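USER:
Try writing one entry.

ASSISTANT:
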Amino acid sequence: MKWLIRILFILVAVAGLVIGSLLLMPGDKLGKILAEQVKAQTGRELTLSGDVRLSFWPVLGMETGPVTFGNAPWASSEPMLSAQSLAVGVDASALLAGDVRIRRVVAEDPVLRLELSQGRGNWEMSAPQTGASNTGSGNSDAPAPNSAAPAETGTVTLDRLELSNARLVYVENGVPQMDFSGVDLKASWPDVTAPMKMSASMPVPGGAVEVDLEIPDLPAFSSGAVTPLVLGLTAPGGEINFDGRVNLAGEMDGKTHVRTTNTDAMLAAFGQGGVSVPMGLGRVADVSGQMTYTKDGRISLRDMRTVLDQNSFDGAADIVIASPPKITARLSTGDLDLTQATAGSAPNGGGTGGGGKQAPEGWSQAPIDASPLSLANGTIRLKANSIAIPDMTFGPSDLSLSLDRSRAVLKMEPATLFSGKLIGEVVANNRNGLSVGGNLTATGIDLKQALTTLGGVERLSGTASGTLQFLGVGQTEAQIMRSLSGKGSLDVGKGVISGFDLDRLMGRGEGSGGTTVFNSLTATYTIQDGNLTNNDLLMQLDNFRADGSGRVGLGARDIDYVFTPVALRANGGNGIAVPVRIKGPWSDPSIKPDLSKVIEAATEEKLKELEQDAKDKALKKAGEELNTTISDSEQVEDALKQKLEDEAKKGLLKLLGRD
């Protein structure tokens, strides 16, 4: 028995001597030994700097200073991993059983570079082939002499992974797809059948992005299979949740829910700083649906439910991640409220003057912010029960908005506005300064509602149809209105002009107050430099017709227009036709008879009367002299000839001696 105790004592002493020798070995020699072993097992270069400290039981571990771990031969020349310090610990007892149970991997200031090319990942490692080829057998399939069967691979698990102030780089087929700095990451995979859980934090403008991720089947995911994934992300201003499936290439499919309490802040956190989302379009947002993401940067959303501020939508969308993104969407909504979409977009609330208020008798001088036209490209189709925008409300409408490099085209197919229908398109182009234009056809428009809303004109009412082509250029509402050019036509059915009574005007020469009811009104017009000119207006009434011509100042918001009424029936001799002149600002134009026309007509009539009176007196005097009745100038000539003949006869008779 004593000899057995002596043998055990000798073995323990030898083991202690070996371990002690390793512990007392200089760090550079330990590092060299470890680097050689790593290269033998993985084929990668491992460089250790500074002291290397080892532990053996119960955790076989290593702590080192700066370290680099080489990349795959086919990958880039940069190391796969580098760090200022690294601590690794493996369960010693599990290792004796053939399993690799990693107790800890802790790195400070690491740079982890993951690369994927043609289905190969640089994280996949295998021992280099060093065995000599078999030349002693004619059968190439026969095993080499003394070759051993491959050993079964034990399980690999990870209790704790910590990366502090890390930089994470992901490269796919030579193109960087992700590069994040300042990342703190923790991960755990305690058992082969347990889910892998990871949490990460990264500083961004306004705070930090926090990510929590869970992969239930890590071995399947690592082999390239599609596996379940649960992901939660919080950022300044909002959060994103995903529950679905993912593969190694990052392609995803599952239920997605995005909530924001401050969309501007969340966009800034993801590198889109300076964007101001208009009210009604998602300053606060809630978007959910079935999301699919493919590795070429395409996102599709189906069964989408979207709430943007006070507005809600249903539909589907496809997004191509680019700069700017390309969006194709089909949406439907009930009542869409965009009345506050421009609120706060201009300093001091917009307008002109030091107080920031709109001038009472003019278009706004506030600069128009057209930068949102560059936020995206694509096409969005919207069907809505109603759409409220500042100062007007559309009824049931089918609209299509196309965006292409800061140029927007809104097609109406149709849109309901002012109780009528609009078909056509309106264009806003901000590529080289802002311009707006359109080509519209309108039917069934409530004329009073339209003129009151667009220009503050309340005196004309009726149901109108017409066409309009226009173009305006400028950075403010006032500049655009003063630059307008175009053409169009107007056709109004039965209507009313308030402010004067054309029947009274034509009957007694008085036209103040009252109303004029007309049966129809037609006109064509041209627009140049903000002035609408018309020369062929025709208004039909029961007893009269009225022709019109003049100018309507769309930019100056004034009018100078003349109606010329013409009697269609006898008027009882109680008055004369009096043209009506409408002149002044839209808000309060003067409507008066055109006295210059009246005076001109009266003067002409008086001259005719004086001429006739003088003629009558001359004829009467001539009749007295000629001793006959004369009613016109021809009778004067005849009477004079007759008088001369009579006098000639008398003279001839006297000459002949006759009485």
Observations:
- The two ends are 208 Å apart (CA to CA).
- Residues 7 and 440 are 105 Å apart (CA to CA).
- Residues 595-626 form the longest helix (32 residues).
